[in-house]
Amino acid sequence: MPPTAHHFTPVYPLHEPQHSFRSKQYAPPRKRKRQQGNDDDSDDSDTNVEPLQPVQSHDINDPYRVAGWPENIPLPGSSFPHSPAVKPKGRQLSSDNLQKELAGLKPPLYVPPPGEQDTTPSLRRHHLSVLTTILHTSLLKHDFVRAGRAWGMILRTDIMGRPLDVRTHGRWGVGAEILMRKFSPENIIDEQLYNRTIISDEGFEAAKDYYERLILQFPYQKTNPNAISSLTFYPAMFGLCIYEIQQKCRLAYERTRKDSPEVEHSDSELGLNGNPEEETSAIRRSELASAASLAARMDELMLSPPFDTYPSLLQLRVSIALWLADLYRTTADSDDDDDENKERASMERAKARRCLDRLKAAGVTAPQMLMDISD
């Protein structure tokens, strides 16, 4: 009875040669012996040929046997048995060709969105790169009107049937800067200090409305906490509000010192009446009221997570608390409500310390200047 062939662990009897099944495929053909008496005219050469015996190998770990190659045949070369990887000879499909082939199937597996049938994505990408170049060139030249037009066209551009995300590549920050500068007057030259740009009221309002829209459009999501969301937009908007308050008060202070015809804010907005001392007091009260209103809005927002532990908001709230403490202290020196303002100043300093403690609990080191001032 012949030995039984196993697939995974071949076991060969000791009296039979050990060779693999594949070695028989590469072995040379053996001539069959003809029986004597059946054919008297048979050649002696056929009857005298001995069959080739396979080379015996008593090592079951023989690499020739494992690779299925007999020992009596030369190796094929090319680092046998480790043959090089064969690259597919088929045609490599690009994304555009793949979409066309999927759309041509019946039924189609891909349906191009509206507007993509006639315009290739490569042309749209080229169009987007041209608009981006125009945007940055206009910003370098301080041509904010033209930059705003290019930015609007970029936002209306679709790639592969999907609109561009305003949060990518810092486009949201560029949009806010364009809106602020777009409505601003020309640069005002300060004879004593430096050149500066005055942001108009229309620019501040347009930028704040823009941030409000972004906050509603991209709220914070727990499933994607690292994405650009309202956590990013709130500190930017509050910083813009601080800049607006300080610019209005700075221009009003300068008008009390000298007659500045370039200042466009009206006297009634800050309660000015012509007396320098009364004007200074009115400006300080207006600054205090605006800062207190901003702080109240931030406190309302920071009652709920994740805003109550967000480092950027906490650090900004520390700065506003110290700012309010100074305003309450200076207002107490020239106001009848001396005790009340001093108490509010101490409350704001305590608020700053609590925010610093939250920063430390979150593992964030606050600037040393804020820590020194709050002590």
UniProtKB/TrEMBL annotation:
<feature type="compositionally biased region" description="Polar residues">
    <location>
        <begin position="48"/>
        <end position="58"/>
    </location>
</feature>
<feature type="compositionally biased region" description="Basic and acidic residues">
    <location>
        <begin position="256"/>
        <end position="268"/>
    </location>
</feature>
<feature type="compositionally biased region" description="Acidic residues">
    <location>
        <begin position="38"/>
        <end position="47"/>
    </location>
</feature>
<protein>
    <submittedName>
        <fullName>Uncharacterized protein</fullName>
    </submittedName>
</protein>
<dbReference type="InterPro" id="IPR007224">
    <property type="entry name" value="TIF_Rrn11"/>
</dbReference>
<feature type="region of interest" description="Disordered">
    <location>
        <begin position="1"/>
        <end position="93"/>
    </location>
</feature>
<feature type="region of interest" description="Disordered">
    <location>
        <begin position="256"/>
        <end position="281"/>
    </location>
</feature>
<dbReference type="GO" id="GO:0001164">
    <property type="term" value="F:RNA polymerase I core promoter sequence-specific DNA binding"/>
</dbReference>
<dbReference type="InterPro" id="IPR053029">
    <property type="entry name" value="RNA_pol_I-specific_init_factor"/>
</dbReference>
<dbReference type="GO" id="GO:0042790">
    <property type="term" value="P:nucleolar large rRNA transcription by RNA polymerase I"/>
</dbReference>
<dbReference type="GO" id="GO:0017025">
    <property type="term" value="F:TBP-class protein binding"/>
</dbReference>
<dbReference type="Pfam" id="PF04090">
    <property type="entry name" value="Rrn11"/>
</dbReference>
<dbReference type="GO" id="GO:0001181">
    <property type="term" value="F:RNA polymerase I general transcription initiation factor activity"/>
</dbReference>
<dbReference type="GO" id="GO:0070860">
    <property type="term" value="C:RNA polymerase I core factor complex"/>
</dbReference>
